[in-house]
């Protein structure tokens, strides 16, 4: 793995994290039993 400046990665990481949260909320709305771990 290459050494990359974290400041360049931060916006992408935030976007991915936000999308992950949205997907988890969507999954819990569709299948409450599956996402409630």
What is the string of helix and strand elements? HH
Please give the radius of gyration in angstroms.
14 Å
Strand content: under 5%
Q: What structural class do you assign from the helix and strand content?
A: mainly alpha
Helix content: over 70%
Strands, total number: 0
Q: What about the largest sheet?
A: none
Number of helices: 2
Poorly predicted ranges (pLDDT <50, ≥5 residues)?
none
Instruction: Average the pLDDT over all residues and give the rounded result.
Output: 76
End-to-end span in angstroms? 31 Å
Shape: elongated
Protein name: Leader peptide
Organism: Kitasatospora phosalacinea
Tell me the layout of helices and strands.
Elements: H1 6-30, H2 32-35
Protein name: Leader peptide
Organism: Kitasatospora phosalacinea
InterPro entries: Cys_resp_CS_actino
């Amino acid at each position: 793995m290459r050494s990359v400046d974290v400041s360049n990665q931060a916006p992408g990481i935030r976007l991915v994290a936000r999308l992950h949260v949205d997907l988890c909320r969507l999954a819990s709305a569709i299948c409450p039993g599956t996402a409630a771990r």
